[in-house]
Amino acid sequence: MITLDDVRKWDENDELNEYKSEFFLKEDSIYMDGNSLGLLSRRSESALQQSLNDWKEHGIEGWTQADEPWYYMSEKLGRMTAPLLGASPEQVINTGSITTNLHQLLATFYNPEKGRTKIIGDELNFPSDIYAVKSQMALHHLDPEEHFIQIASADGYTLKEEDIIAQMKDDVALLLLPSVLYRSGQLLDMKALTHEAHKHGILVLFDLAHSIGAVPHQLDEWEVDFAVWCTYKYLNSGPGGTGGLYVNRRHLGTHPGLAGWFSSDKEKQFDMDHELTPSSSAGAFQIGTPHILSSAPLLGSLEMLLEAGIEGIRKKSLALTQLFMDLVHQELKGFGFTLRNPVEKERRGGHVCLVHEEAASLCKALKSEGVIPDYRSPNVIRLAPVAFHTSYEDVFNVVRILKEIMQKEKHKSFKNERDIIA
Ligand SMILES: *Cc1c(COP(=O)(O)O)cnc(C)c1O
């Protein structure tokens, strides 16, 4: 039996406790949606303010004279992100979005040739990734029905690594999978999948949207070929914050499929030559002018993440999701909830996946009680206890509030259908 006293004791001993005050949290509200949009921190606010001041002060000279010179900011953020990936810095660049970075990497490295045309994906991935694959296939005049293998899920929530491995054949060019499935929060075994794919000469691309900033990675050690991610989820860079990509060093030097002047070697860029000399680093996969004001907040949030350390964040995140599951079992029996995230530590991402027939109306009821959850059609409530700013007591309170909603049937006064954004 877990009590309020227990969780308060854990909060007192929590080494990340001090970071709660770094975030703009609303009083009487518990934010459980950091896996959709991370919250603003004081450090991100001042980093953005600094960029505005630099613009005010320097105008065009900000490209070289700003406190954090804009011309080199993407590379600087790449260097800061590298430790979260287990990667050396020249392979990482802050640029684009998940979807545009996927297009760039597919345009560059997906070169279907006779006998090797297929891409393996899965049927649970986020739609944007699927659209990107299908449209890149269309550009090669290939029919996705024939060339795109989407691994099926037996339970509708999780994937089995052995099912994926079973499809790895010598006619497959590339494997594209999420590190953590966006609905169930299942963490895939990236190391084993990469190892098996390489046995068949298959390139491996992971979408780290739901793992970066929540789970440590060892991309170099695992020999992953490519990765993409966004920064507005667990990296707290703000709405539309600039994303990032990783290209393993053995692929650096490949001419970008989608080239632009920011793909250039930085020394040569302003020669304005019509023959591109691409950067020798992952910077080659940038296209146009970097989005400085959408990147600057990341300077602050990454500084804080590196200071706190990803290992400590993962440790607390696992303890918070474990507490969530324990409390669901303890308090919510008989109310029709099923936990659909994997139970094992090594297969869990940063959120729990609570399934209920009335998930949509329950989410509306939670919001009216000051809890911000995340609804995914048709029946999923995602709850992300972000380690940086969630206390053990917060988790305790969310479950307590949910129990009260069920007992008093408060959700019955809301429609069980999704809003325009959900
Ligand atoms: C959030 C998310 C996206 C969003 O892509 P953007 O290009 O950043 O809008 C794509 N794929 C996955 C798996 C996601 O979780």
TrEMBL record:
Enzyme Commission (EC) number: 3.7.1.3
Coiled coil: none
Cofactor (UniProt): pyridoxal 5'-phosphate
Top EC category: hydrolase
Pathway note: Cofactor biosynthesis; NAD(+) biosynthesis; quinolinate from L-kynurenine: step 2/3; Amino-acid degradation; L-kynurenine degradation; L-alanine and anthranilate from L-kynurenine: step 1/1
Keyword Cell membrane: no
Catalytic reaction(s) noted: 3-hydroxy-L-kynurenine + H2O = 3-hydroxyanthranilate + L-alanine + H(+); L-kynurenine + H2O = anthranilate + L-alanine + H(+)
Residue numbers of N6-(pyridoxal phosphate)lysine PTMs: K233
An example Gene Ontology molecular-function term: kynureninase activity
Binding residue positions for pyridoxal 5'-phosphate: I98, T99, F126, P127, S128, D129, D207, H210, Y232, W261, T289
Gene3D superfamilies with a match to the protein in the record: Aspartate Aminotransferase, domain 1, Type I PLP-dependent aspartate aminotransferase-like (Major domain)
Pfam family name, one: KYNU_C
Keywords, comma-separated and alphabetical: Hydrolase, Pyridine nucleotide biosynthesis, Pyridoxal phosphate
PANTHER family xref list: KYNURENINASE (PTHR14084:SF0)
HAMAP family: Kynureninase (MF_01970)
Similarity remark: Belongs to the kynureninase family.
Function: Catalyzes the cleavage of L-kynurenine (L-Kyn) and L-3-hydroxykynurenine (L-3OHKyn) into anthranilic acid (AA) and 3-hydroxyanthranilic acid (3-OHAA), respectively.
Quaternary structure note: Homodimer.
Protein name (record): Kynureninase
Organism, as annotated: Halobacillus kuroshimensis
Lineage of the species this protein comes from: Bacteria, Bacillati, Bacillota, Bacilli, Bacillales
